[in-house]
Amino acid sequence: MVFLGGEPINVGRLAALMESGVRVVNSYGPTEASDVVSFQAASVADVAGVPIGRPVPNLDLFVLDRRLRVVPVGVEGELYVGGVGVGRGYGGRFDLTSDRFVASPFGEPGDRMYRTGDLVRWNREGSLEYIGRTDFQVKLRGLRIELGEIEAVLLAHESIARAVVLVHGDVTGDRLVGYVVGEPDTTVDALDLRSWLAGRLPSYMVPSVVTVLDEMPLNANGKVDRKALPAPEFVAKQYRAPVTEVEKTVATVIEEVVGVERVGLDDNYFDVGGNSLIATKVVSRLTSELGFEVPLVWLFAEPTTEMFAARIESARSGEVEVLGADAFGVVLPIREGRDQPLFCIHPVVGLSWAFAGLAQHLDPARGVYGLQSPALSGDGAVPDSIESWAERYVREVRAVQPTGPYNLLGWSLGGIIAHAMAVRLQAEGEEVALLSIMDSFVATGRAQAVEIEAAPVAETSAPSTRDMLALVLPGVEIDDAIEGEMSTDTVAELVAGLPEPFNGLGSDRIATAFAAAEASMALAAAYEPALFKGDLVYFTATLDDPSGLRGASTWAEVIGGRIHNHPIDTTHWTMATPAALTRIAAVLTESWAADEGRG
């Protein structure tokens, strides 16, 4: 038997040990809490890393957020150690002691906990999984990134013995870079390793470059000396220069707005540092310089310079219809594709523009369509019930895709409508391959036994003006000073200077959207759902629901299969941020892959 600790176990070495018949036990613990506070026996199933296990007797392990609140299973938090093994502090270092040894809200008066600084999460088997250090948490291009999480994925590669990821800053901006040491007698190809990472991490978490080292520089304590790591060498991909007028204009605008030196035809807007917050500036500049309305969704759907420019050129020549004219249509074609499409159902404001940011994270072969309230296009009023709404949308869906299997994703009110659509499609003899819901609470007659506190607060109260603007204007920075109520004329004036399609809202449509939100909440409260015979993929906004269970649990009686609940580190009204959509897309992709594997 071998006990290991101090560093994460490399899965390649673990496999070699276990093949030789050795029993391996992974242990974890800081010196400040008696060295070992948890352990777990390794198994051949631990291909993605060995959990650090469960607490030893007389010690308590808590996974907490920044306000010392317990986080739900599967959600990352900082590890705190309580119990008889916790030290008294650091000799002669009152400042450090007060920072690391804190009062415990879970024990008797006077009890303390040790704040480890380690980022962990509970898995469904009741064991802790180590992610990394909280002091290695960074914010890059508006996205929060756990460097330890990237390092853990690198260490899951059978050829990697050690890995470090950090942020490298220079005149071109901040970028993620990785450093690895290979296992003995192995050859590590940095480009192949990046491709391998791209299949396991969101695009914004894949290092721009990976440097292969013979060994890691260490400090006197035996830890990696990050300051001694060599400067990364960035090797540009093969550059293809823009040729046409539109290609040159698109490349130049992206270069100037994003702040990069050179953008070629094969460069992806998001890979060179673009994001949804500045995408509106890109399309606004292009509209001005080309004298042609460039819809924002085109950039999300075709983020490479060549494809984005080709779409603009096709529309200018009249080869394809300009999407801007259909931006308020009941069916919003975000992207066409040869695979079974994903149909996205709007939140309370009735618009599906926010889902445009999802397309870039999905397989390009998969089509993405939004469904929008008929009241906004003048193609009917807000339906008088959720069932009527579902009936209308099923007709629209079947006009695009006559037969199943169907894939549905709904956010907030859209989740309730998506469920009703799935039930109706099954009643019509069709297969629903995917029913996925983003933080929706169903308040049915059968759910009335659940106290109102059981629902996410954001789901049971009317959205504020700021919340509504976040839904109507996905990706647009909203002034933090906005609070309280605003008239529809004021909101219309606010968006008039934005690019298409935002500037086409007008006070009438904004008034309709706000009124539709109020009416739809009443319809949702009156909805009595039938049973959906299948699984539900559910996304919980954990910043509104720290338990991670309250919204998902309300669906239990009307889902015939399993509910797969996935925590998203955001609020109910901000589930369309780039970081949240990246996570959601990854889960959806895994779900489709699992279905194909079973098929």
Features:
alpha/beta, 7-stranded mixed β-sheet, GMP Synthetase, Chain A, domain 3, 21 strands, Non-ribosomal Peptide Synthetase Peptidyl Carrier Protein, Chain A, 5-stranded antiparallel β-sheet, globular, single chain, Luciferase, domain 3, 599 residues
Summarize the structure.
It is built from 18 helices and 21 strands.
How do the strands and helices of this protein lay out in sequence?
Blueprint: E1 2-4, H1 11-19, E2 24-28, E3 38-41, E4 54-55, E5 59-64, E6 77-83, H2 94-100, E7 101-103, E8 112-122, E9 128-133, E10 137-140, E11 143-146, H3 147-155, E12 160-170, E13 173-182, H4 190-198, E14 209-213, H5 245-259, H6 276-290, H7 296-301, H8 305-316, E15 331-335, E16 339-345, H9 356-359, E17 366-371, H10 374-377, H11 386-400, E18 406-411, H12 413-427, E19 432-438, H13 457-460, H14 465-472, H15 488-495, H16 506-526, E20 536-541, H17 550-553, E21 563-568, H18 578-598
Parallel strand pairs: 1-2, 13-14, 16-17, 16-18, 18-19, 19-20, 20-21
Antiparallel strand pairs: 2-3, 3-4, 5-6, 6-8, 7-8, 8-9, 10-11, 12-13, 15-17
Helix pairs in contact: 5-6, 5-8, 11-12, 15-16
Identify the overall geometry: globular
Helix content: 25-40%
Number of helices: 18
Terminal CA distance: 41 Å
Give the strand content: 15-25%
- Based on CA atoms alone, the radius of gyration comes out at 26 Å
CATH homologous superfamily placement of the largest domain: Alpha/Beta hydrolase fold, catalytic domain
Unreliable spans are 445-462, 480-484
Q: Round the mean pLDDT to the nearest integer and report it.
A: 80
Count of strand segments: 21
CATH top level of the largest domain?
Alpha Beta
Domain count, please report it: 4
Which sheet architecture does the biggest sheet show? 7 strands, mixed
Structural class: alpha/beta
